[in-house]
Structure formats: structure tokens, C-alpha cells
């Protein structure tokens, strides 16, 4: 059985999907872009600020599912420019304990929704 997870503290989906789906003890979180949930405005121009907004959106969804970053088992980071990897990694890393950090891949892509520079998705488990 699956349960749909949505919160007003993260941006509403911009397509036919939900913010997250809980299936059993596993939470699948859709990719989050640096969009402010309250205003609908994009955070742009500073990759660290953009990454922080993505992570805060993910945190809001995790919280809605009664989870935290300690429950994340897998992350996927999509970048428009791999040259920004170290800055993204610095912000992303602040949300995890290095010894228990999740598995992850980071890939450069040709484009992202709304032409943002970063999108992050996660899988979490109880």
C-alpha cells in the first residue's frame, strides 16, 4: 500500500506527480528544485543558496513523513554544470553525518525543470 506525502512547506508539484510516496517503510521523494514554497519564486544566481533551498524543501517533505536526513538511504543530485560540484557538495554535506551518509550519485544534465542549476531527489527508509 502506498501513501501520498505532500506538504505546503515545499513547492507544489509542477506536473502529474506528488512530492513523495511512502510505500511500506520506504519514502520516495521527487526531485526538488530551488523554489520557495511560499512565493513560487526560484532561488537563482548562487549555487550554494540554490542547493540549500533544495535541501530545505527535502527536509520539509521528510518532516511531513516523520523522518529526517538520518533516514535517507539514497540521494541523486542533478547539476547543470559539474564545475559547481564542490560548492553543492559542501552545502549538501552539512545535512549529513559523514559516517552514516547515504549512497549517492551526482550527474551533469543538459537541462533541468524551469532551467534551474540543481535538482535533488532522495529515498529514505525507517
Automatic annotation (TrEMBL):
<dbReference type="InterPro" id="IPR006056">
    <property type="entry name" value="RidA"/>
</dbReference>
<dbReference type="InterPro" id="IPR006175">
    <property type="entry name" value="YjgF/YER057c/UK114"/>
</dbReference>
<dbReference type="InterPro" id="IPR035959">
    <property type="entry name" value="RutC-like_sf"/>
</dbReference>
<dbReference type="GO" id="GO:0005829">
    <property type="term" value="C:cytosol"/>
</dbReference>
<dbReference type="GO" id="GO:0019239">
    <property type="term" value="F:deaminase activity"/>
</dbReference>
<protein>
    <submittedName>
        <fullName>RidA family protein</fullName>
    </submittedName>
</protein>
<comment type="similarity">
    <text>Belongs to the RutC family.</text>
</comment>
<dbReference type="Pfam" id="PF01042">
    <property type="entry name" value="Ribonuc_L-PSP"/>
</dbReference>
Amino acid at each position: 500500500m502506498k501513501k501520498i506525502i505532500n506538504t505546503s512547506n515545499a513547492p507544489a508539484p509542477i506536473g502529474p506527480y506528488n512530492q513523495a510516496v511512502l510505500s511500506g517503510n520506504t519514502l520516495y521523494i521527487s526531485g526538488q528544485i530551488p523554489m520557495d514554497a511560499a512565493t513560487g519564486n526560484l532561488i537563482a544566481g548562487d549555487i550554494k543558496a540554490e542547493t540549500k533551498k533544495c535541501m530545505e524543501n527535502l527536509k520539509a517533505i521528510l518532516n511531513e513523513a516523520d523522518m529526517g536526513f538520518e533516514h535517507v538511504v539514497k540521494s541523486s543530485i542533478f547539476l547543470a554544470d559539474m564545475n559547481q560540484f564542490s560548492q553543492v557538495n559542501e552545502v549538501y554535506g552539512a545535512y549529513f553525518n559523514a559516517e552514516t551518509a547515504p549512497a549517492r550519485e551526482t550527474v551533469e544534465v543538459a537541462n533541468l525543470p524551469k532551467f534551474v542549476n540543481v535538482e535533488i531527489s532522495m529515498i529514505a527508509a525507517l
